[in-house]
Design a protein that fits this description.
This protein is of the alpha/beta class. The chain is 42% helix and 19% strand. Strand 1 (2-6), helix 1 (10-21) and strand 2 (25-29) form a beta-alpha-beta unit.
Length: 332
C-alpha cells in the first residue's frame, strides 16, 4: 500500500517505521530536525533490544508526495486544524484517512444515531474543530477511526523508542464492518501490530478517553507520575468523580462504559511510574493537548445538559496553568 504518515513524533514514527519495514511504500510529512534526520539517515526504530532503519520518504510538502492509499494522521490535536488543508494533495477519492490521535476526534458526533438528538450545528465539536475546517478537509466518509494502546518515545529527531504495548483498534465511524476496514487491519497486523477491527469504534475511543481524561491533566498540573497520582486518596477520589461524569455523558451518546472507575484505575496503577503524554509535553514546554482530551468532554456535556463540575474544575485548572506558561492559546 502507498501510505503517508503526517507527523513523525513517537506514535507516527513507530507506525511509519513498522509499515515501511513490512514492505509498504511509506512517506511522511515532517519538518525541522526530524525531517532532516530522516532524509539523512532514515527512520530509526529501537524495539526489543534491536535497532532497525526504515526507508521512509520524508517531505515538508504534501504536494510532493501525491495521492495515497492511506493517510495516517499522528499529530497533536491542537496542530491539526492549521495543517488539515495542506493534506489535500494526499487525499484522492479512494484514500483512507486514519487519525491515530488522542482524545475525541472532530467526527465523533457525526453519526446517524445522533442526528435526531442534536442539530447539525450541535454535532460540530468546536473544541476540536472550531471553524469546521477539519470536517471540510477530512470528510467523514473517508475516515476510519483508530485507538492507540501502546507507549513509545522520541529520544532524538528521527529515532523512535518503543515502550510497551502494540495494540491498535480500527473501526468505521458509523459502526459495523467493511472490506476497507478488513484491508487496513490486515496491513497493520502484518506489520507487527496487534490489531482489532471494532464494530463500535466510538465506544472504544470513549473508553480510552474515560481513562486518560483525568490522569493526563492531573499529571501536567502536579508533575507526578501515574503511580503517585493514583496512590493519593484525595486525588484518586476526585478522579473517580470526574470519571463518573464522563461515563454519564458517554451513556447519552451511545458509548456506555461497563467497567467501574475503581477497576480502571487499578489497571492503570499496575503500569507503574509512567509519565503521561501531557506530562511529557509539559516538561518539554510543548503545547498541551487539552481540548481533545478534556474540553471536548465538557462541551458534549453542555450540549446534552449534563453537569460535569469535576471535569470543569480540572479543565479550568490545567488550561490556566498552560496559558500561564504559554502552552495553550490565550483567552479570546
Amino acid at each position: 500500500m502507498k501510505i503517508t504518515v503526517a507527523g513523525l513524533g513517537a506514535v507516527g514514527g513507530l507506525i511509519a517505521a513498522k509499515l515501511a519495514l513490512a514492505g509498504h511504500e511509506v512517506s511522511a510529512v515532517a519538518r525541522g530536525r526530524t525531517l532532516q534526520a530522516v532524509r539523512d539517515h532514515g527512520l530509526v526504530l529501537r524495539m526489543g533490544g534491536q535497532e532497525q532503519r526504515a526507508a521512509v520518504r520524508a517531505s515538508d510538502n504534501a504536494g510532493a508526495l501525491g495521492p495515497q492509499d492511506v493517510l495516517v494522521i499522528a499529530l497533536k490535536g491542537q496542530s491539526l486544524p492549521d495543517a488539515a488543508a495542506s493534506f489535500a494533495p494526499l487525499i484522492a477519492p479512494h484514500t483512507l484517512v486514519v487519525p491515530a490521535m488522542n482524545g475525541v476526534p472532530w467526527w465523533f458526533l457525526q453519526t446517524p444515531a445522533l442526528q435526531q438528538r442534536l442539530s447539525s450545528a450541535e454535532r460540530q465539536l468546536r473544541s476540536v474543530d472550531p471553524h469546521g475546517t477539519l470536517g471540510a478537509a477530512l470528510p467523514v466518509e473517508q475516515v476510519l477511526g483508530c485507538v492507540v494502546h501502546l507507549t513509545c518515545s522520541q529520544p532524538e529527531p528521527g529515532v523512535v523508542q518503543h515502550g510497551f504495548g502494540d495494540r491498535l483498534i480500527f473501526g468505521e465511524p458509523a459502526g459495523g464492518t467493511s472490506d476497507r476496514l478488513d484491508r487496513l487491519a490486515g496491513a497493520f497486523g502484518a506489520a507487527g501490530f496487534k490489531v482489532e477491527a471494532s464494530t463500535d469504534i466510538r465506544r472504544e475511543i470513549w473508553f480510552k478517553l474515560w481513562g486518560n481524561m483525568t490522569t493526563n491533566p492531573v499529571s501536567a498540573l502536579t508533575g507526578a507520575t501515574a503511580d503517585r497520582i493514583l496512590d493519593d486518596p484525595l486525588v484518586r477520589s476526585f478522579m473517580l468523580r470526574a470519571m463518573a461524569e464522563a461515563a454519564e455523558v458517554g451513556a447519552q451518546i451511545g458509548c456506555p462504559i461497563a467497567q467501574s472507575g475503581e477497576e480502571r484505575l487499578t489497571v492503570t496503577r499496575q503500569l507503574g511510574a509512567f509519565k503521561t503524554s501531557m506530562l511529557q509535553d509539559s516538561e518539554a514546554n510543548r503545547p498541551l493537548e487539552i481540548d481533545a482530551i478534556v474540553t471536548a468532554v465538557h462541551e458534549i456535556g453542555q450540549k446534552l445538559g449534563i453537569a460535569t463540575p469535576h471535569i470543569d474544575t480540572v479543565l479550568g485548572l490545567v488550561r490556566l496553568m498552560a496559558r500561564s506558561r504559554g502552552l495553550y492559546p490565550p483567552a479570546a
